Amino acid sequence: MKMKMERVQETRIMLLMGRTWILIMLVGSCASAYAYTRPPPRDILSIPFHRKHGSDPEQVHISLAGENQMRITWITDDDNVPSIVEYGTSPGVYTSSSRGDSDSYSYMLYGSGQIHHVVIGPLEANKIYFYRCGGYGPEYSFKTPPAQFPIVFAIVGDLGQTGWTSTTLKHIQQCNYDVHILPGDLSYADYLQHLWDSFGRLVEPLASERPWMVTEGNHEKELIPFFMHAFTAYNARWLMPFKESGSSSNLYYSFEVAGVHIVMLGSYTDYGEDSDQYRWLQTDLSKVNRRRTPWLIVVFHAPWYNSNTAHQGEGDDMMATMEPLLYAAKVDIVFAGHVHAYERSRRVYMRNVHPCGAVHITIGDGGNHEGLATRFIDPQPQWSVFREASFGHGELRVANATHAHWSWHRNDDDEPVKSDEVWINSLSQSRECIEGSDYSGRKILVSP
Ligand SMILES: *[C@@H]1O[C@H](CO)[C@@H](O)[C@H](O)[C@H]1NC(C)=O
Ligand SMILES: [Fe+2]
Q1: Apex 230 CA angle, 225 and 235, nearest 5
Q2: Ligand 1 pocket check: which of 151, 397, 402 to mutate, most ligand atoms within 8 Å of Cβ?
Q3: What residues are labeled active site?
Q4: pLDDT in tens, 40-93
Q5: What's this model's pTM, rounded to 2 decimal places?
Q6: What is its EC number (predicted)?
Q7: Alpha-carbon distance values, 354 to 11, 53, 185, 346, 351 (Å)
């Protein structure tokens, strides 16, 4: 009943917003020829699953795991299935195999299936591999990312598993990307563990074919004091290459692909100057070689630059401690989620437009059941270029060492419509920002 009331209210607000929008359009005689009606939230999908056998692999997904390696993760009901992946470059011909390990977890009354993790490689770049999990069952395939530019990233956070999620996923699948980046809030299971399983099935068609690199959001926490540790399900199911990148926690790590160094941070674990995460970030950033990886990107969940009324100020503490590190390292782009809307900033540092700061992009509009965050603060801050509350996804096409094209695609009546786009130049090529920055600026990246 409460849900229904909220829906009705939301619909009213949407209608109202819609009218205001039309008014603005008329008054402002905008370039756009029509008023876009923002979609209401859609229901949670029921994801069918036809299991044939307890040893059948399900919820298969892959992630980058160090140079030329891929981690294959899948779940079986049967806990006697070996953690083995056979693979090769022709269908049905498995010329190599690797072993890994498996584990399960309990969450109150729920017991997970057996979760297998196997790292395979060395793999050739930009090549299709065929693989089979557990020595049995159906064949899957994936493509490894290229070793050099160009490379395409699909980026969207706060996915959930509603009708809008499946629309967003369909658009991502069409965009021919190499690596998916997810800035937190995956399944919206929110303690109901079977929803992690349905999410795993929902994303399998995409996540078994291209590496999905994720970081945690608040919905991954699932902490029950005295009973359940935070991030139990997330860490068990979405193991990321933290060991491979010298981190001691699955909640923050980094990876490199085709000339791009990507740092995945944790908004919901310690980030103070005495924290492990802070020290690890110092070390990781100080090791970045901009000749080898001209692009430097950082990803986390709660945005630092957000002019939406939703989650206002939630990233402030993390920003106060970590933004100087990012600035010293000359980070190009920061992606965040959490706010269910889209927003892109100018290059910005310390809340002011700054030519050597990062471009901040909030892309928390994957399509979860909580709906959109429709209210923005007026006037629009100077650092904010584009903001809109609609579901959609982003694509970053890194053309070469200097140029990357960013575009945001709104789910307009279920069609992807390119609604914002911009060319971004890497700071690694900027004399003003790199050569001009005095040596002491980088000192902050070295632990005392
Ligand atoms: C990099 O890509 C951009 C956009 O396609 C192009 O204009 C530029 O000439 C390229 N630079 C080099 C060095 O190839
Ligand atoms: Fe969130």
Answers
A1: 155
A2: 402
A3: 311
A4: 888 888 877 766 688 899 999 999 999 999 999 999 999 999 999 999 999 999
A5: 0.91
A6: 3.1.3.2
A7: 39, 58, 30, 8, 9
